[in-house]
Amino acid sequence: MIHSAGWMIGAICVGAWVGAGSSGSGAGASTPIVTLTNPSSNGQVVNTLRNSEGFPTLGAVNAATGLNRCTVEYKRLSDSYFWNGTAWISSVFAFSPTITAASPSPPYYDFRENAGPSAGSMTSGAQYLVYAECVETNGTRTTATVTVTKA
Question: What is the mean pLDDT of residues 141-145?
């Protein structure tokens, strides 16, 4: 996995993020294309979640040769700590999101990760990176990232 980029996520969270867009890498029939649909790049996390709730993340993958796995990471940029589901730690920590077949499938898949940082664990004004990596059955990897700010 490439961990220097940050976090990966895949989920829908209505009302918790403001903004639009995501970045990804990968193109062509043999390279999976990963898109993060929530949160959005340059968005803001607002305090609509209870302090104990982690924000969900949504994403989509086009994996022509079949999907092997996806991972999601959440990274606090101020100190490069990673969210492990309960606390920020110095070691890289990756979640395995739930993957479901989309229509038409294959090669389309959706992923969702609900273990993002809780509002209470995030610092106002701080930036966070969400990093997603997906691997096709042939070993081809691709990533997508978004950066968000806690309101």
Answer: 90
